[in-house]
Amino acid sequence: MNDDTRTAIFTRLRAENPEPTTELDFGTPFELLIAVVLSAQATDVSVNEATARLFPAARTPAAMVELGPDRLKSFIRTIGLFNTKAENILKTCRILLDEHGGEVPRRREALEALPGVGRKTANVVLNTAFGEPTIAVDTHIFRVCNRTGIAPGRTPRQVEDGLLRSVPDDFKRGAHHWLILHGRYVCTARKPRCGACVIADLCEFEEKTEHG
């Protein structure tokens, strides 16, 4: 796929959704961080249901620590791996308090040093909370980039590096959101909705469906 085609793809995705953002509910960088940690192997819908109860009770690292493990687990037990996630969240909150003045750091290295925070989570926080041109690659984006030819790769990191090299600068900040939403609702895993896809004629996927 050449640069002109990529530009055309992102131009169309932007026209459909000029101000893309996450579907996770949050009000502060801290709330976003907690929501993204909870979202691993869970749906955004299930996370939003849990955080709608959790955040009114604890909107800061100090308040989260004060909840303690049992109360925290009572808010998030509907989410997969909630025991491990609760442990990581409390450890993270203590680090934020001890090392970062209770604030979420804006540096990748500091974010990735937090328990339960890997490269993908750090990318989401840097992009969505702080406006950095990072591109987190989840299963949806990995599939879309390989299927369409936008940025093929064998691993999420290869896809991420390919996107950072090839996505025009004007689109980098929104690319993560456009691609994840496209994968979630149009370029789905089992039955891609090629008949309803605004970039179908630019896509290199050979087994296009009529499904709309």
What does this 3D model show about the protein?
The protein is mainly alpha-helical and 212 residues long. Helix content is 59%, strand content 0%. The chain has ten helices and no strands. The relative contact order is 0.13. The model has no long low-confidence stretch (mean pLDDT 93).
Q: Which superfamily, in CATH terms, is the homologous superfamily of the largest domain?
A: Hypothetical protein, domain 2
Q: Helix proportion of residues, in percent? A: 55-70%
What summary fits the major beta sheet? none
Q: Just name the CATH architecture of the largest domain.
A: Orthogonal Bundle
Gyration radius, rounded: 18 Å
Number of strands: 0
Sequence-ordered SSE layout with sheet pairings:
Elements: H1 3-16, H2 29-39, H3 44-57, H4 61-76, H5 82-99, H6 108-112, H7 119-128, H8 139-148, H9 156-166, H10 169-185
Summarize the structure.
The protein is mostly helical and 212 residues long. The chain has helices at residues 3-16, 29-39, 44-57, 61-76, 82-99, 108-112, 119-128, 139-148, 156-166, 169-185.
Q: Keywords for this structure?
A:
single chain, 10 helices, 212 residues, Endonuclease III, domain 1, mainly alpha, elongated, Endonuclease Iii, domain 2
